[in-house]
């Protein structure tokens, strides 16, 4: 059905709802900014003795230096200035931080995916690992990352890992979980009849894995990769805090919070959401390519 | 060149201007050293870093350094850069606090991680019970609780958070401040610490002597030239958040805490000041940071002496 | 202890012990039947891991501030049991439970509400994936700013983290009922509500439980991390951050253990609940 | 399109088992599915008249539109052209009046309901009281030979038993029109024979209108009062055969010459349509 | 347990189509499934001899153990007691020697492989070269009438076409023994007839040993040289019937008295076992 839609129809069908929802979010944001900032504006910006009009109050809430919630246009301005007024290799340009965070995210994502794949293959093939490992993998995700990140970084540092690698390890820690769980499910998804067919061909374990289980698991893998890359981004940003908040979107968030630059926090937040969207978009693109190459399943 | 890695306690700011100044002005290079300055942050414990052998020397406050010592990381103070405490409690007049007597029934923001003990000590002196008379909030690393009126008073540093409150639009006349130094509960802040074992190594002591000498030179320069110090700090900030104006002001306030700047005494740990800090820490609450007096083993003047050559 | 490492027998000994450990877990896993076998195997594996951790930390003389031995952690947990209990009540009893219930509940209700509005769904889902990429380290300071340092700000973070996974899962679950089954209800001229209650919600149960489980661990982590950015003087996150700053690593790990055990128990509990509620689902039926 | 025999449908045959009231009236109906490349003519120009109380079988090769035609009648599919009336009203209204009991090719039982609860489901929807619903359901379960299984869950039954539950469910509803899409496809011959017999008796007793899809010529001949032979690409009716067999039937009938002759006629029509 | 006729199996009947070498030998085999409540006797005391080149049909009501017996022969299930030999070795060794081509009741095609790739799958596993695998696969696809569809994906085919792909897949493997579990269950009668004819011709040509499960008496009689009638609870063989029909068969045969007589014999045996 969807294939018969023309381009303008597709635009209306797919993007109009998003536009409407975003517009609603924007309006709600303005209202919230006005409501949340009002008290601070009365206390710290407006001269109470001199009195003020409601219009002045509204204006003040939209332009505060240190708002409780910056107005969207303030964030947009900050965004714009950051991107246009500084060279790309300047720490004041958000793209610079996107690159830093993006690197550790992608590296961690790659490592996490690899680890997840290996673990899931082992778990599926070994009853022992299935029973012994799976509960601990679940438990591993209940350990608060931010709490162990500093320790992990120091330990990794003493093992000689520095720079992007230790941050990528934290990203990996969050990435591998969805991949493992989904792949265990996916590798087990072939029906009995299909595994028995391979059995009658006297296919080796390896052949069964390669010819049946892995292809059958692909539809499970890609949604997990999309979740995983988003989780990896969170991990990379969390890992930037205990590495001295030097650079990266996580560092921007932290220093923004530290220096009370609310607008900076929000533009870093928006940027990280966009980065997350871009990364999941890339994964979705790869997914589409792979699935098309096998006929659309 | 000899390699030295120093771990700071917090993000790049004028609080650490001496190190950045020494690097910027080439003092370290002149001393034949290749120095790596690792910035810190709220989640970095310098003691953990040095225990993991990721730094040769760390900047830390004495409460957490002595706590680490008791926890099995034998840190030794080898130089005390700040000889005054910049810690204070900043309150909004509007909340009804005019003197320490008024704390009763109020919410007070406190930094934890060792810094709570001077505070508890102080409350003890005031006769305020911390579980009923006042409400304590574990303060994050910014001043929002005061701005949002979530606390009547918050912990601030004279060189940093206090000014953030002011920058946020609260007028100085609407604020009341209480210095730990004046209340007699101050502990020693930014000092330099190394692992005890390393002090037995003469080469290490000599190297650190060179490092300390260059660093103190950097501090002298920074105190003299706040503008230049601010520039060095901002240049070193890779997060792109530090601003020149703020850092310059911070440097000017930091300078007030290094009263020995420009004299021979800069960096020298006064044993009396050390004793006083230990006493404050031992006196805190039911579960103090340190349970026994570490004695003279917790500081050494060997490197300071080496730096004087 | 260091001399034990230098002893030429240490590493061969460890290797031997590792083999014994591996074999015992293997044998345990091979036991047929009862459901406790799985748990026992996992527990045995855990016991071995802890034992190796203990031996290696001691033998290699790892500084306590980096990685404390499990025995120290246990000791510290016993010594500070009342404190940890208070932290548990503060974090789990208030922020996590309330935030999780509110987040999951509202996610579910909104999903049911917009189930009939494909337009809103097409608009909301991309926005939902946008927000899911926002890390809680960014949200937590804002939440503390808005909702104060007491538990409501942590609950708010938890609500935000759990809302969208529940929304997305429930929407997917409501679409999970088979075409045939839906047409059957349609041919009965069953009302929307009737179809929802008799067919679509039961069919969505596995999805809903999936979100409940994921959210349980997310909620715990979210509340703990939010406490790093300002909290009252108790809570697991408060404990972890303050004790880490004063180098009391055994207690830090004690708090982490409390968190992990809580998370795992919650997860296991939800798995059991799911077995009851979605008893008919093939994944449950097979055991 | 040689559905010439379907034209005399307007005038119902004079056999006694056909009442004169019309149950289903399809006129000139077409269904076209829009797919990626070319549109599929699933049904083309269908004319069909079903009187109340008839047992009509649809037979034809895979893809000839049997299911589609059933779905059109039951308001599960919309026609692209033409007209469909059920009990004198549109399929939509007939559905709202709860005219249909639909047995799908797969049992479509709800796995979270046990056998009894599955059968009572439509009764519940109809607003029947608990006790009454249970009584009716038990009665129909007994009829399909599943007494004693009412507490079991669907996955605890064999495929044939599941299908029987789904038949009981459709029957208990007491629909005006019973639609059955290959209900016995998955059963072995003997069970199938037995169910055929039961279905025949049921129809004898109650004379509901039944629309029945099958691939088995013998089944169609044994059960129906009217056999509709269809052919694919485009889906159309090639022949409508009114059964000359008596209403009272038993399995032995299948060895009679009359039966064989009718079966032969159906097979011929099928072969004709089959290219 | 009146499988008296199965006793003279050791001495092969004198019909020409039976070679003397043994393909499958089942002696006293039992299969018991342990379930939650009571153990299920899926197969009880089975004796069966299949000579090379025979076409053996298993027929019997649902749950009588037809599938289980097939699975035992193909090493998909272990026997609880007794002995099974395939080509003189254990089923396990026979499987490793790639003796079986198994056609399951459902087509079990891999949706991510197109028709050609599905058929070459077993060849690939066997280690055949790409070009050769393709050649063989194309040949067998042509044989089942699917030339020109090799680039299509399974979901683009009708159910009958899918089943034919799965047959081509089993054949291309050139197995010594072809096991087919209700391969035509889902097809309409005419397609089914056609495939029956093709299968018959194929067997004529190649004389592979075939073990075939069906619910259709006509199908069993039409195809087999030996019909094994089974009965449930516990699963056992009630009768083994050697077909007196000639090897050369065509669909017209079904209307001959010899055919009908045999069909009647099978139906009787089935009815005997059916209680
Ligand atoms: N949703 C759909 N979209 C596109 N084509 C469809 C759709 N449903 C059915 N068709 C096509 O319409 C035609 C008739 O399908 P229908 O299911 O009615 O056949 P049928 O006679 O019931 O076949 P079978 O005996 O295999 O059940 C087929 O060619 C089929 O491919
Ligand atoms: N895995 C199993 N566990 C328990 N019982 C089983 C299992 N597989 C089969 N059975 C039982 O064994 C008996 C024989 O089953 P089998 O599948 O061989 O029957 P069949 O003759 O092939 O039936 P059908 O014609 O329905 O395919 C049945 O009663 C069935 O319920
Ligand atoms: C966990 C923790 N939070 C805050 C401080 C206090 N502190 C020490 S240095 C510094 C920067 C100066 O503005 C601050 C705020 C601490 N010691 N530990
Ligand atoms: Mg159909
Ligand atoms: Mg079977």
TrEMBL record, chain A:
InterPro entries: MetI-like, MetI-like_sf
Key words of the record: Cell membrane, Membrane, Transmembrane, Transmembrane helix, Transport
A Pfam family that the UniProt record links to this protein: BPD_transp_1
Top-level lineage group: Bacteria
Main location: membrane
Protein family membership: Belongs to the binding-protein-dependent transport system permease family.
UniProt subcellular location: Cell membrane
GO CC terms of this entry: plasma membrane
Protein name as catalogued: ABC transporter permease
Membrane-spanning residues: 12-32, 94-124, 136-162, 168-187, 208-234, 265-286
Sequence ranges assigned to domain ABC transmembrane type-1 in this UniProt record: 94-287
Membrane topology of the entry: Multi-pass membrane protein
Any GO BP annotation: transmembrane transport
From TrEMBL, chain C:
Domain called ABC transmembrane type-1: residue spans: 107-277
Keyword set, alphabetical order: Cell membrane, Membrane, Transmembrane, Transmembrane helix, Transport
GO cellular component: plasma membrane
SUPFAM superfamilies linked to this entry: MetI-like
Protein's cellular compartments: Cell membrane
Name the record gives this protein: ABC transporter permease
Pfam families the UniProt entry points to: BPD_transp_1 (PF00528)
Gene3D superfamilies (alphabetical): MetI-like
Main location: membrane
Organism (species): Rhodoferax aquaticus
Coiled coil region boundaries: none
InterPro entries listed in its UniProt record: MetI-like, MetI-like_sf
Membrane topology (UniProt): Multi-pass membrane protein
Transmembrane segments: 6-26, 33-53, 92-112, 124-149, 155-174, 195-212, 218-238, 250-270
Single biological process term from Gene Ontology: transmembrane transport
UniProtKB/TrEMBL annotation, chains D, E:
One GO MF term attached to the UniProt entry: ATP binding
PROSITE patterns noted in UniProt: ABC_TRANSPORTER_1, ABC_TRANSPORTER_2
InterPro entries, per database record: AAA+_ATPase, ABC_transporter-like_ATP-bd, ABC_transporter-like_CS, ABC_transporter_ATP-bind, P-loop_NTPase
Lineage top rank: taxon: Bacteria
Domain named ABC transporter: residues: 26-253
A matching Pfam family: ABC_tran
UniProt keyword list: ATP-binding, Cell membrane, Membrane, Nucleotide-binding, Transport
UniProt record similarity statement: Belongs to the ABC transporter superfamily.
Protein name per the record: ABC transporter ATP-binding protein
Species: Rhodoferax aquaticus
